[in-house]
Amino acid sequence: MRTKSTLAAVAAAGVLITSGCSSDTSGATGNNASTPARSTAATSEGPGGNSVEQSAPGSATASGTAVGATGSGPDKPDSEWFVRADYDRQLAQRTATPEGDPATPWLQSIDAELIDTATFKEEGKQNLCFSNASTGNPWRATGYVTMQSQIKMLQEKGVIGEYFYSDAADKDDQQITDIQKFVADGRCGALIVSPSTTATLTPAVQAACDSGVPVIVFDRGVNTDCATTFIHPIGGYAYGADGAEFLVKNLEPGKRVLALRVGPGIDVLENRWAAADEIFANSGLTVVGQEFTGGDGAKIKQIVAQYLEQGDIDGIWMDAGAGALSAIEAFEDAGKDYPVFVGEDEMTFLRKWKETDLNGIGLAYSNFQWRTAVLAAEKIWAGEQIPKEWVLPQVPVTDKVERDALLDTYQELPDLFYARFGGDDLPAFPAGYLGT
User: What pLDDT, in 10s, does the model give residues 107-138?
Assistant: First the structure.
């Protein structure tokens, strides 16, 4: 009951802050990954020395998802969701020192190629438009509260005039329509887009760029580099690799790992699995399955329970932390030892990690990028140089000392709050994140 109530509280906070702004449409459904746009194929054998089992749960669960495709180590060819040069670059960026003030990580950048935005310089208040994939999960709800608060600050500063918002509820067709409407209305001084899916939204983003309005893409990418800036943490490869490497380090060869994925067709999530798949390929670990869950807690618990009926699960890898608690509870219900667990910086997981003293890691896909997108618009209107690809630091919670410090700092925040949100200095903190 606590999980449901806190999700409602975080989602409601976005509504409270939005009340002071103009909006077109709104919505509050969907998952961090959008409705699956395509399915993935299964293989019954994993190359590169990593064994993969085709077990009953892969075909028996409600997800209907295939089990166990694996990478092929250093000889793995490039594909739609795996580009070795990008993979190598992101893994190297994990140890790079970001440029900028560590106190404001949302303004830091890694390996930045600065571009001139003087052609977009404007005087006075400018209207800001935002086409959002959804606010349909806790990570997105937390980020939207942060974004709204940053917008409010810039409205009070006289930078932003009206704010126009659309929420596509994770529907590609709706988001395409939303973007087309923003472009046709001609009222956007800048357009921020967080795409629902990658390929499908590409033409709409390209058309927005072609209209002459500065376009800021963040979170998920599209298959065009036309945007004035593309803002994201280091990326999906880095996220997926952090989790896979943690399991390899903490499990002996032959141990069994289950991968839980939200859904297909979104670059950052596909990259997360591609990186993990690459690392597992030569690890000696046995990947017993990879299952799409839709981020649904009940489905996650059902899938994990079915795999536990087939044998022990020693490690859980997840491409997004929502639902981590359900996976852990499946082990408790089955009377099994806790696995080595790849979670996220969501308070639900951090609290459960401490309560159970399991062996875990809290990955982060820096939630503060939601305010970076707004601040990028301010810089563009000022004609300042900004990164063409704005790569933000992405730092997981790796030890109990840092975990406990975060839990202490944010002890009053709800379970579905993300600790790496980067908004302590915003007017919305903390009340806006409590839903009060």
Answer: 999 999 999 999 999 999 999 999 999 998 89
Dihedral sign for Cα atoms in the order 379, 380, 383, 384:
positive
Residues 6+ apart with CB under 8 A from 77: none
Would you say residue 255 has pLDDT above 80?
Answer: yes
Using alpha carbons, select from 66, 423, 393, 414 the residue that is nearest to residue 231. Answer: 393
Query: Domains of the chain by range and CATH?
Result: 2-31+98-234+366-394 (3.40.50.2300), 57-92+236-363 (3.40.50.2300)
Alpha-carbon gap, residue 239 to 237, rounded angstroms: 5
SS (H, E, C) the chain: CHHHHHHHHHHHHHHHHHCCCCCCCCCCCCCCCCCCCCCCCCCCCCCCCCCECCCCHHHHCCCCCCCCCCCCHHHCCCCCCCCHHHHHHHHHHCCCCCECCCCCHHHCECCCCEECCHHHCCCCCEEEEEEECCCCCHHHHHHHHHHHHHHHHHHHHCCEEEEEEEECCCCHHHHHHHHHHHHHHCCCCEEEEECCCHHHHHHHHHHHHHCCCCEEEECCCCCCCCCCEEEEECCHHHHHHHHHHHHHHHCCCCCEEEEEECCCCCHHHHHHHHHHHHHHHCCCCEEEEEEECCCCHHHHHHHHHHHHHHCCCCEEEECCCCCHHHHHHHHHHHCCCCCEEEEECEHHHHHHHHHHCCCEEEECCCCCHHHHHHHHHHHHHCCCCEECEEEECCCCECCHHHHHHHHHHCCCCCCCCECCCCCCCCCCCCHHHHCC
Distance in angstroms (rounded) separating the CA atoms of residues 427 and 282: 48
0.85 surpassed by pTM: no
| Nearest-10 Cα torsion for 32, 377, 12, 157 | 160
Residue 187, token pair as written in the block: 């009222």
Please, which pLDDT band fits residue 74 given cuts at 50, 70 and 90?
low
**Would you say 237 and 71 are in contact if contact means Cβ atoms under 8 Å apart?**
no
* pLDDT on residue 322: 85
Work out the widest C-alpha separation in the chain, in whole angstroms: 65
Token pair listed for 212? 């002459």
